[in-house]
Amino acid sequence: MVKNTAVGHKKFWHSFRFAAHGIASAFKSELNMKVHSTLAILVLVAAGIFRLPLSSWMLLFLAITLVLTAELLNTAIEATIDLVSPEIHPLAKKAKDTAAGAVLLTAVFAVIAGIYVFYHPVMDWITGLMS
């Protein structure tokens, strides 16, 4: 692992590069990160197709950000536990399960937010098709 030995503004900009590497690493290694990212893109495309108002876009961005952040934290927690406790241990399981629960909780929020945002536009579209 590369240690950040830069100082001042260089250190500040290096931190962005390290963060980007972390996101890319999670995307490459974690199936759930790929699934969440793909669904996020599909939701944003649908938001564009339905021409949702800015407030709906903001709610969708909030939900997407929360899910991806939870997934990144879950990945970091799992990697740390695997490093510290490679053998099976009840506390390691508890920590991993709890981190996974945080992802599930944010994903449920995202689904509820999606239903809230898309319900009326989709129902209006279906009604238009039927008339």
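Next protein, fold it too.
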Amino acid sequence: MAKKSRKQQPGGTPATVALTGAGTTFTVHSYDHDPSSPSYGEEAAEALGVSPDRVFKTLVADVDGELVVAVVPVAGSLDLKALASAVGGKRAAMADPAAAERTTGYVRGGISPLSQRKRLRTVLDASAGSHATICVSAGRRGLEVELSPADLAALTKATLAPIGRA
């Protein structure tokens, strides 16, 4: 069986290539990433001029020994207890950053919920549904993709649940 390459393909990142391949409507937004910025998500919201409740960060957590992706607004934080409950688990903790990078194929601050090296269960915060479009990482620091929450949920097979805290 041929091994699927995760290298950046001509014309985009694995995330944007997957969106194009799926025929999904999306917009790519780029900005100059500042390595000294304390928050990748807040930096993206400010650089793009988008409300922080419409820019979502992709976090990887360990729920009872299984890595799970949580997609929550950068304006708040992840409720680990709610995430565990959303996937039928008991305990959740943030995943080791090296394990998150190795498993997703993306670097911290550029982890996209789309087209990860290994498909992980994904939970999208329910607040996403109150927006026509949201922004998530396109797979590289300084690159965001804007798409409908319904398309993101469909492509990642995400569960929608209230996992974010204001």
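About the second fold: Helices lie at 14-22, 40-48, 80-86, 97-104, 149-156.
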